[in-house]
Amino acid sequence: MRSLYIDGAWCDSASDEALDVVNPATEQVIDTVPAGATADVDAAAAAAAAAFPAWSALTPGQRVTHLAKALELFNARLGDIADVLTRDIGAPATFAAKVQAGLPSLMFRTYIDLVEEHGERYFTGEEVGNSLVVHEPIGVVGAITPWNYPLHQIVLKVVPALLAGNTVVLKPSEVAPLSAYSLAEVLDEAGLPAGVFNLVSGTGPVVGEAIAAHPKVDMVSFTGSTRAGTRVSQVAAETVKRVALELGGKSPNVILPGADLTKAVKRGVADVMRNTGQSCNALTRMLVHRDSYDEAVELAAAAAAKYAPGDPADEGTRMGPLVSAAQLDKVRSYVDLGVEEGARLVTGGSAPVEGRDSGYYVSPTVFADVRNDMRIAQEEIFGPVLALIAYDTVEEAVEIANDTVYGLNAAVWSGDPDEGLAVARRLRAGQVELNGGALNPRAPFGGYKRSGNGREWGLPGLEEFCEVKAVQM
Where does 18-139 show beta strands of DSSP type E? Predict the structure, then answer.
């Protein structure tokens, strides 16, 4: 069994219990990690609090030096880390290398660059009238991360928090914790001072709640379900600590009349099938004008058929298994619910995937004739399930797009860029992709409404881990 990483050393947990790590493609146990206890969080928080004065006193450049060394070591192990992610969450090998490991590397580098470019202004301060406005670290940051993009979400919290001068207690998802250990090994090898980074594995109800409640933890940054995020907020409120939440989504993909329908549908389906649909920002509601609706349904079915589930270790596989048996049961139940609600099952379904006797595999699924009040259009399924919804006017499309408790992501496709931008501005979401706009690691990401609060990525993702002080002169 693996150990915890507290105060610069690998150590045993106060708990004798362990958590099995299961390969979702084989259903075999591949590792075990400690089911940490409240006492472990106490030790980690104490170590982080003790390390904070010295770490926060370093200049931004000195902290960059530490993290740049860690990034160098991280990149040297990138291939091995991608292999870990394939086994841990079932990510296809190509996707694991390019996205599950490659994106964290990109974000790691981006945050270092941002501090090098803006650190002097942010942390030394800038004059605003007769005041000096300074960004300062908050203190001890508790980071609680999910299983769908496990390393990416860890990097989005740990790296900017450390660069801003905070110390960290990390609880990775118990479902997919192994890449967190890869990062901990890198930070240890890079010589990060003891206590600056701490890793406590375990469950949400025990370790997660202990972090959220701990009086020595000054901020909690959480990514996961809206239900769990609500609980984190409730627990953290007792000590009035800052809480940043990146939660669920039910994102609309609005295809306007005159858009390149073939391209829009193909890209939209690819977005839903990415990571086997286990993406909080997946564009799972495709809104198409009624005049083009039947064609869009045919295009979507044809595109989905190209995502046959396969062995994630195979370089040619585009879609691997879901992460767990529980997730498989959930997705299948939603597919059955969609049929019961009266949606038309165009392709896919809840039946076992042919030829896959082991592993948590599900078929790529497309529903047509979906009403926006159906549960499959309102609730986050977190699987490769697309709902196509028809509309008659652009005004109606905007109303449907915004008719959800979520507001994380959205997309607009238009033959007229000005019209597309006008619609994008009306959508209540923290990020909107216009005509397939490329990912920008310097742009903020986060949600409206029940998709959370706060922002990750870019300078806002660095500011999230700072207090702001005004010195009147």
Answer: 18-23, 28-34, 126-128, 131-137
